[in-house]
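ARCHIVE CARD
Drawer: 12
Card no.: 0347
Subject: one protein chain, sequence and derived structure
Cross-reference: see card 0346
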Amino acid sequence: MITKRVKQLLEEASTRYDALPHPEAFTAQDVAKASHVSGRRVAKVVIASAHDGRYLMAVLPAARRLDLSALRDAAGARQLSLAGDAELSMLFPDCDLGAMPPFGALYEMPVYVDACFPRAGEFYFQAGDRREIVRIRYEDFERLARPIIGDFCLHEQDERLGHDADA
């Protein structure tokens, strides 16, 4: 079920969306499979904690891994670490663990989205629930989330070199 704050955001902005049920899934890749959607179009939300107490939201395609160094550089943070389950529960009290929506402003944090998302067409994300995915246009996601766009995914060559492959 879509959280109230996500539903309100979408409806107040007159954004067309579809809520699509699927079997319960715990990872973004499993959500893509359960929904029969390309993992290139399904958002994986990763939360990082900065040394100064800020939280950052990174949004990348389901099958990709976060380049923590690139996110740290873009955020101007001295140190970043991935948020733990206790922090996620505190930050997203209206969401199932791991089913955070990609709209950081709803949770008072900036959004960093990877540039490798297809810039046109459909964009899928979880909106608080492990049994439902929401479909909107990517353009609507950008308009609503106002993300910082950059290269935040590890690529195979980077992973072989041993760079931050934490998420």
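Annotation on reverse: The longest strand covers residues 43-50. The first helix runs from residue 4 to 12.
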